[in-house]
Amino acid sequence: MNSLLRRNFKVLATAALVNAFCIASASAADVTLRISLQLPLTSHLGQNLVMFEKEVEEKSEGAIDIEIYDSATLYKDKEVPAAVGSGSIEMGVASLTRYVGDVPAVDIFYQPFIFDTEDKIRKAVAKGSAIRGPIDEAIAETGSTVLWWQAYGGAIMLSKGAPVKSPDDMKGKKVRVFGKTLGDFVSATGGAPTLISGSEQYLAYQRGTVDYGMTGVSGVKSRKLWEVMDTISITNHADIEFIVVVNTDTWNSLSDEHKTIVQTAATNAEADVRDRMSQIEADAYAAAKENGMSVYTPTAEDVAAWRAASEPVYEEFVNSSGDIGAAVLKAAKAL
Most buried of 27, 146, 319, 323, CB within 10 angstroms? Predict the structure, then answer.
């Protein structure tokens, strides 16, 4: 049985609350599309949704109403795939890895150090590419249609007191992760992975639930993680991608005119956030430094040690992700 279906009981319990929001906010719009987002609206993903909202509502002359529920108001990141797939909410933003239970190949982007340049990332995430294409098609089988991908930047390590320089620093440490493959990476380097959602990581660092953190640097800025951590290590060991999905039945119910408006706005939003990602990260690093954080850049020797320690992660991915995983890994290495 599809694992999304097994999670629907919890999702449907939340659906009553979501529907109450919808009724209370009903307007003259012909179509209302609610979007669940785990990050604050001030984050770059939140602002990307605002851009989408503005274009859709203007181009449809108010016939389509976009409602954004940020900061995990309605659903946590891990609940979004089931919520959208079941139709409990029309749209949602989820970390790509949240689909790993149904589409193990999505974690190709978390294979350590494979996507180590912007050029490789752009080729991999291009619509219809040998990597993105099969992933979008597989996600469609969960009841959701991918509208666009949202760039979130490279994965970094967070710590207190000293940087995370090499795999030796990971031994015996509890590390916050946000996906299975990232957990495999931590285990391969001697650490203990702890799966914690993005909206809960601040408290985890504050309470000492984990020793180290893992996130994108833009998240450090939007969540003010400098209040609970003081050091960033720029490992860039994975490429973090979010996707915006729409319930397939909802999508199919839209008129051709409305589909064109939504898809055009989605395409524009995807290009905008991708083109601005380098500056977004630069601004986030600057903000982190301004708020007292130290930033460490690994040496070539450090990176070589990380790569060597990561070999078991590649092997596990091939073993667990089937034909699609093998195909996308081959395509990724060919980049």
Answer: 146
For residue 68, what is the enclosing H or E element? strand 64-69
3-class DSSP state for residue 85?
A: helix
Tell me: domain 3-334, CATH 3.40.190.170, correct? yes
Percent of the chain residues past pLDDT 90, beyond the cut: 88
For the chain, which residues make up each domain, given as ranges?
3-334
- For 88, half-sphere exposure in the C-beta direction (CA atoms, 13 angstrom radius) is 25
Per-residue confidence (pLDDT) for residue 116, from 0 to 100: 85
The whole-angstrom separation of Cα 297 and Cα 300 is 10
Distance CA 280, CA 58 (A): 26
Amino acid at 226: W
Instruction: Indicate the residue type of 315.
Output: E
Flag whether pLDDT at 22 surpasses 80. no
Interacting residues of 153 by C-beta distance below 8 A, sequence separation 6+ = 216, 217, 218, 239, 240, 277, 280, 281
CB 53 within 8 A of CB 68: yes
